[in-house]
Design brief:
162 residues, alpha+beta, Aminopeptidase, five-stranded mixed beta sheet, globular
Length: 162
C-alpha cells in the first residue's frame, strides 16, 4: 500500500468511498456530489480541496485499487490563522484494521506540519468510539463543549426568505 496525493482520474473511486462513508454514517442518500464536481473543484486553477489516497495494486496488475482517502481544505481561524480542516478520512470497510486509516491520518498531519499550520480540525460522530479512541491516542483533543452547526440548503432558503 502507498499513500499519495490524489489525481483527477482517481475521483470515481474517491466518490465510491464517499458513498460508502455515507452508508457507514447512516446517511446513504445524502451524497449529492458527482465525479465532475470533484474533478472541477479539486483540480482547477484554484482547487478547493486536497485529497490523499491509499492504494493497493489491483489484483490484475493493471491500474490501482484505492482503498482509502482523506480530503482536506484550508480554513482561516481568527485565533490561529491558516488552519486545515479534515473533511473526511475514509477506508473501505473490508480494508479496515490494517493501518490504512492511520497512514492517511499521518499524511494529513504531515501536510499540515510541513506548511506551518497551527491547527487541524475535524468532526467525529459521538457514536464512532473507535475513531474517537484513535484520535485521543494520537494526541488530538475531542472537544466536549462545542457543537457542530449546519444550515442546509432548504434551511438557508427559508431563513433568507423569512
Amino acid at each position: 500500500m502507498i499513500v499519495r496525493e490524489a489525481e483527477k482520474n482517481d475521483m470515481p473511486q474517491v466518490l465510491e468511498l464517499i458513498k460508502e462513508l455515507a452508508v457507514f454514517e447512516k446517511e446513504p442518500h445524502a451524497v449529492e456530489i458527482t465525479v465532475a464536481d470533484l474533478e472541477r473543484e479539486g483540480f482547477g486553477e484554484n482547487p478547493l480541496f486536497h485529497c490523499f489516497v491509499a492504494e493497493n495494486s489491483s489484483e490484475t496488475g493493471v491500474g490501482t485499487n484505492i482503498v482509502g482517502a482523506a480530503l482536506v481544505y484550508f480554513r482561516f481561524s481568527t485565533w490561529k490563522g491558516r488552519t486545515l480542516h479534515l473533511e473526511d478520512l475514509i477506508v473501505k470497510e473490508a480494508e479496515r484494521g490494517q493501518g490504512i486509516g492511520e497512514a492517511l491520518y499521518k499524511k494529513v498531519m504531515q501536510f499540515a506540519f510541513d506548511r506551518g499550520l497551527k491547527r487541524v480540525a475535524w468532526d467525529v460522530l459521538d457514536w464512532n468510539t473507535g475513531a474517537i479512541r484513535f484520535y485521543e491516542r494520537s494526541g488530538a483533543s475531542v472537544l466536549k463543549t462545542w457543537r457542530v452547526v449546519h444550515m442546509d440548503e432548504q434551511a438557508l432558503k427559508n431563513y433568507i426568505n423569512s
